[in-house]
Write a structure and sequence with these properties.
single chain; 6-stranded antiparallel sheet; 4-stranded antiparallel sheet; alpha+beta; globular
Length: about 150
């Protein structure tokens, strides 16, 4: 009787341990997926680009751009990175006037955020995260920016 009881307890304990390990692995996978970065290309030919990520109000959104460049489609100008035309201010024809033209922006819950080479902001509301180039004439240039986006 004692041997059967001990055997039964050991089998239940082993089952519980395996179940605990499985649950732990699944939770770790979800936690890592939730904070993993998603790479998003942002072509000059696009307006808003959905990142594939949604953020709930109060969550941290991190955007880090890579070194890719665009040509804005303005004759006699060169290629620029995601920081845009540093030292210049966009006119009212641009998505975000007053900020450097042809730089990288993020949008979430109706608010715009300057990204440039990278930023982190707190999501003001629940909704999709978009990227956009501060460009007054989309699809008249060439190239693309790329960015890694995560929601924590």
């Amino acid at each position: 009787m004692t041997v059967r009881l001990i055997g039964s307890v050991l089998r239940r304990s082993a089952g519980l341990s395996i179940a605990t390990v499985v649950v732990g692995v699944v939770l770790a996978a979800f936690a890592s997926a939730a904070s993993a970065s998603t790479y998003v290309p942002v072509p000059e030919s696009s307006g808003f680009v959905y990142t594939g990520l949604d953020a709930q109000a109060g969550k941290a959104v991190t955007v880090t751009s890579d070194a890719q460049q665009i040509w804005a489609g303005v004759w006699f100008t060169g290629w620029n990175g995601p920081q845009g035309w540093v030292g210049k201010k966009a006119s009212s024809a641009f998505p975000w006037p007053g900020q450097p033209p042809y730089g990288l922006l993020a949008k979430q819950a109706g608010q715009t955020f300057w990204v440039g080479t990278g930023t982190q902001f707190t999501a003001p509301g629940t909704g999709a995260v978009y990227l956009q180039i501060n460009d007054d004439k989309v699809n008249n240039g060439a190239g693309q920016f790329g960015a890694y986006v995560s929601v924590d």
